Amino acid sequence: MTRIAATRTLENVLRRVGFRRVCGVDEVGRGCLAGPVVAGVVVLHPDRHIAGLSDSKKVPPAEREELFEEISQRALAWAVAEASPAEIDTMNIHQASLQAMRRAVMSLVPLPDLVLVDAFRIPDLMMAQRGVVHGDERCSAIAAASIMAKVTRDRQMRALHEQDPRYGFLRHKGYATAEHLAAVRQFGYSTVHRRSFCPPALPVEFDTID
Questions:
Q1: Cα separation, 196 vs 205, whole angstroms
Q2: How far apart are CA 101 and CA 26, in angstroms?
Q3: What's the pLDDT at 210?
């Protein structure tokens, strides 16, 4: 995948017109069969440049871990939040993703005065916001949020693998790989699977493993 370096051009423009705490927000895990959807939010420090920010999917895992530590130390503020598999099944993945992003933004203290979101807007936020198409590639704050969310979720999936290695979460992080689908056929869905997600290759009915 071609990696495009995100820039702070948009954040700088917004700060010049009066917005002081500009945050970026993004989520990861929408297309997975298992695990939560996780949202990250970051307010970058205007005077502390962080090199290498880009869409988390295009950053190698070891570099993502390094950037996670750098962002956590150099950003003005950051947070992560999630929506569980049960919430995803109850409200659908799109609404659960919005809920996770809303939770992340609202956990910041103090709250941001402008929210930059990858692609779309978050309903029911009390502050100004702007959707940025391909924001995780173009906007440093959104790219940083993507990395915080991705690293957090990957760590969670590794922990789930240690609890139950049958599904191979360590390798595919809950996505619908051939290995994962074969494990679901053999063992059924676990408590961390999204029961509303049923790939075409799987039967509608299956045994539940707790």
A1: 11
A2: 7
A3: 28
Asked whether residue 166 is domain-assigned, the answer is no
Give the number of domains in the chain: 1
- How far apart (Å, rounded) are the C-alpha atoms in residues 104 and 38? 9
The answer to whether residue 46 is domain-embedded is: yes
CB 118 within 8 A of CB 141: no
Tokens of 142: 């959104």
2 domain residue, yes or no = no
pTM for the whole structure: 0.92
What is the rounded CA–CA span in Å between residue 65 and residue 100? 22
In a domain, 185, yes or no: no
Predicted confidence (pLDDT) per residue in 169-183, tens digit: 999 999 999 999 999
Cβ atoms 26, 136 nearer than 8 A = yes
